[in-house]
Amino acid sequence: MFSFISASFAILLAASQVAAVPSGSSPSVAKRITGCDGLGSGTVNTLFTFRLTASGGTNKGEDLVLVDSGENVGDADIFVLATRNTVPTPFVPTFSLNNAVLTPDGTNQVDLAVAAGELPGFAANHGEGGHIYCAAPVGGNFVLAVNGDKSSFALCFANESPNPRRFVVYKPDSNHPAYNSKTCQSVQLNIVDV
């Protein structure tokens, strides 16, 4: 197994100020959150049922899928985002963003806090989530932001062979043992309606 998540990642819980969405509001209605205000007007913390793709450089919108990282938080497996073309699967998950918590639809997984150099992760039955994600407008569409940052995601190949998987990493670290930082390519994570 690979050590994808550091100990600090597993216990780190981010605190951000979140505005509640009024009960009974339409899924298309979203509230702004303070932690995302610096990302511009139109930034929201609630959207329902979308896919995530990665684009930037030579990547023109690769579907992202969930893959078991081989790490655990408590007794829950941690899942991370990888490109579909490096993890062949017929299933491309949809996600929802609710009060700044990113969740894979149809699961009981919630997002975990993410530190620089780490892979954004999800775990089952692990509290209410990190409240650290939002959707920021870019060119008439939304991109995913974490910790108030929409520009620090990358796709990086894992340090494995013969067929390395390509993972989403937040602010890649040149010395991280789980991925080869020389293969990292900056991307934005696009929110795609389904």
From TrEMBL:
Signal sequence region: 1-20
Keywords per UniProt: Signal
Protein name as annotated: Uncharacterized protein
Origin species: Somion occarium
Source species taxonomy: Eukaryota, Fungi, Dikarya, Basidiomycota, Agaricomycotina
